[in-house]
Specification:
Largest sheet: none
Distance between the termini: 110 Å
Helix content: over 70%
Number of strands: 0
Length: 189
């Protein structure tokens, strides 16, 4: 190799080093830019999530305020029926007066007063218990393959014995006897 060729190669190496440094600098700039864009995107996604949560909370608060302003007890009773039919919350054994009040957006005191003054059930608990009993009776008539325990659980009762007492109070029969009325009709048809 001649000295001229060596100098040309050295110049080419220097040019490649300079290009390499420039490309590394550009790559660092692009990586930094991508990190910034990624952070902005994450912030945007988080802001959208927070905005959605805020929107839902605002809608719930508006609904609660609207319900709290209901002066007409019959409207509130209709709303109770509508909400429970829609959500079926009463089938959860832990569902209670507090949760019913929250579902409607009214105070427990307002709800208790409403039942005391305007309902045959006298208390929200009695109303919820009645809904559970009616559900159990419907299931006893129609779900012949379900056990009494399964019906009790599906209807929101904590214990089978509670279901048995409620059915006995309403019909004067045990759940099994009540079911037998309907299964014997099915067999004879």
């Amino acid at each position: 190799m001649t000295e001229k060729e060596i100098k040309q190669l050295q110049a080419e190496v220097e040019r490649l080093r300079a290009d390499n440094e420039r490309l590394q600098s550009e790559m660092i700039r692009l990586v930094s830019r991508n990190l910034n864009l990624s952070e902005q995107l994450e912030d945007n996604v988080e802001m959208r999530r927070r905005a959605e949560v805020a929107r839902v909370l605002m809608e719930e608060n508006i609904e609660r305020q609207r319900n709290a302003d209901l002066q007409d007890d019959s409207q509130l009773m209709a709303l109770i029926d509508l909400r429970l039919e829609e959500k079926r919350s009463h089938l959860n054994p832990d569902f209670d007066t507090r949760q019913l009040a929250e579902l409607l957006g009214v105070s427990q005191e307002r709800l208790i007063r409403l039942f005391r003054n305007k309902s045959i059930y006298r208390t929200p608990e009695a109303y919820i218990d009645n809904l559970r009993t009616m559900n159990a009776m419907r299931m006893l008539r129609t779900q012949h393959n379900y056990s009494i325990a399964a019906i009790s659980e599906a209807s929101g009762f904590n214990h089978v014995r509670t279901l048995q007492r409620r059915i006995m109070d309403v019909t004067g029969m045990t759940p099994a006897d009540y079911r037998a009325l309907f299964t014997s009709d099915v067999r004879s048809v």
